[in-house]
């Protein structure tokens, strides 16, 4: 599992833009930037939609005022789902990225198999990444939402 002080693994995350599908190389996207990254088990799921994503939407300006260049939300969903969820949640200030095949999530060691309920998913976490290196890492216990929230991250910036 990824830890504070380690470099973020390289992988491809997808974004659906007005110009079409964009594939981002993670290391390139995060290079020379201060990034808040948070991951959710799935778009449109109850805790993710009612608390996790809305918290980052509500505090986006305050987080960016602390020198954060990007706030990134990742889920093991495709870019089409992530775009629709971001639009529904008014998440225009966030970068909504899909990890459709869970390659990034697995490279982090943060994958979770939910079986027939949803298959491979991500554990719930948030990270502060500076120039590709993890500086803060907040990992929630399975089925919990206690430390990966926006307010906790804001307090650590």
From TrEMBL:
Keyword list, A-Z: Antioxidant, Oxidoreductase, Peroxidase, Redox-active center
EC number: 1.11.1.27
CDD domains the record matches: PRX5_like (cd03013)
Sequence ranges assigned to domain Thioredoxin in this UniProt record: 2-157
Catalyzed chemical reaction(s): a hydroperoxide + 2 glutathione = an alcohol + glutathione disulfide + H2O
Source domain of life: Bacteria
Keyword match Oxidoreductase: yes
Xref: Pfam families: Redoxin
Matches recorded under PANTHER family: PEROXIREDOXIN (PTHR10430), PEROXIREDOXIN-5, MITOCHONDRIAL (PTHR10430:SF16)
Function text: Thiol-specific peroxidase that catalyzes the reduction of hydrogen peroxide and organic hydroperoxides to water and alcohols, respectively. Plays a role in cell protection against oxidative stress by detoxifying peroxides.
Family to which this protein belongs: Belongs to the peroxiredoxin family. Prx5 subfamily.
Protein name per its UniProtKB record: Glutathione-dependent peroxiredoxin
Organism of origin: Shewanella electrica
């Amino acid at each position: 599992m990824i830890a504070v002080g380690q470099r973020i693994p390289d992988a491809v995350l997808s974004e659906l833009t007005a110009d079409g599908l964009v594939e981002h190389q993670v290391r390139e996207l995060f290079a020379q930037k201060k990034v808040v990254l948070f991951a959710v088990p799935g778009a449109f799921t109850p805790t993710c939609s009612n608390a996790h994503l809305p918290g980052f939407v509500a505090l986006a300006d305050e987080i960016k005022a602390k020198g954060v260049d990007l706030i990134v939300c990742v889920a093991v969903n495709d870019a089409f789902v992530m775009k629709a969820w971001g639009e529904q949640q008014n998440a225009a200030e966030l970068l909504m990225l899909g990890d459709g095949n869970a390659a990034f999530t697995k490279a982090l060691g943060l994958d979770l198999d939910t079986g027939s309920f949803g298959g491979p998913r991500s554990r719930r976490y948030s990270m502060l990444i500076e120039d590709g290196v993890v500086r803060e890492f907040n990992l929630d216990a399975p089925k919990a939402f206690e430390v990966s929230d926006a307010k906790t991250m804001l307090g650590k910036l």
